[in-house]
Amino acid sequence: MTVLLLIFSVIAGVFLGKHFGKKEKLAKNLLILSAGFLITICLNEVFPQVYNSELSSSNLGIFVIAGVLLQMILEALTKGFEHGHFHHHSDHNILPVALMVGLFVHAFIEGIPLANEEHALSPYLLGIVFHNIPISFILGAFLFNRKEGSKTPSYPSLLIVALFALASPLGMLLGNYFNPDLQPYFLAIVGGIFLHISSVIIFESNKNHNIDWIKIGLVIVGVSLALMMHLFHDHSQMGHYH
Q: How far is it between the farthest Cα atoms of the chain?
């Protein structure tokens, strides 16, 4: 079920992007909503698991920082797709190979901690799913709406979508071969990635620094959804991976 959810979230996002990709406002709103959800999952689910684990140590903060820095490096490849910056790029200044590598590594690393998730619909999993949809929306809009006269998707575009859809499941598969004791370290890295992406989306400056009430409302909705999930989720196994 986990694998199906991960793949479906990408396919659904790409489908929406292909058909509604010209609606930039919709893409932005989906990103803002998911950012509120993601940062709440990060602070209420991921970080408590990291610091309440049996192996918790002062060194785990280094891995959180490593996740932030890793995401900054990946964004040099994706050119800010995770933040909705697809409309600033033409076919000449972003390489599909670089985009594919950046998105694949990003999703692959997020999938590794799923190997030790005991609940089918854990907040961590749903955080990834919720995050995948707007990114896939932007990806679908970029890949399938660049050439107005072409109605048939190109094979490179389909390959990028397929690799992105399979990245997290492949990371989850690899995670089964790691010692469960390493779970806090992988979660710390992913926590840094989540924190960077969500904070950039939420705190990006508005035009003329005016208050954007719609943006604030969307963040509140995303936060509320994640808090509801947090309240109803069983946290009795938090910090135990054996």
A: 57
List C-alpha distances in Å: 53 to 161, 183, 184, 185, 238: 35, 9, 7, 10, 7
**From the CB of residue 149, how many other CB atoms can be counted at a distance below 10 Å?**
4
What residue type is assigned to position 50 of the chain?
V
| Number of residues assigned to the chain | 242
Nearest-CA neighbor of 78 among 106, 117, 59? 106
Residue 28's contacts (CB-CB under 8 Å, 6 or more residues apart) are: 84
Whether 39 and 202 have beta carbons less than 8 Å apart is answered as: yes
d(CA 143, CA 84): 14
C-alpha span between 90 and 214 (Å, rounded): 29
**CA torsion, ordered 107, 108, 113, 114, to nearest 10 deg:** 80
Phi first, then psi, for residue 57 (nearest 5°) are -150, 170
pTM, two decimal places: 0.85
Q: For residue range 168-225, what is the model confidence (pLDDT) as tens digits?
A: 999 999 999 998 888 899 999 999 999 999 998 888 756 666 678 888 999 999 999 9
**Rounded to the nearest 10 degrees, how much is the dihedral formed by the CA atoms of 56, 61, 67, 72?**
180
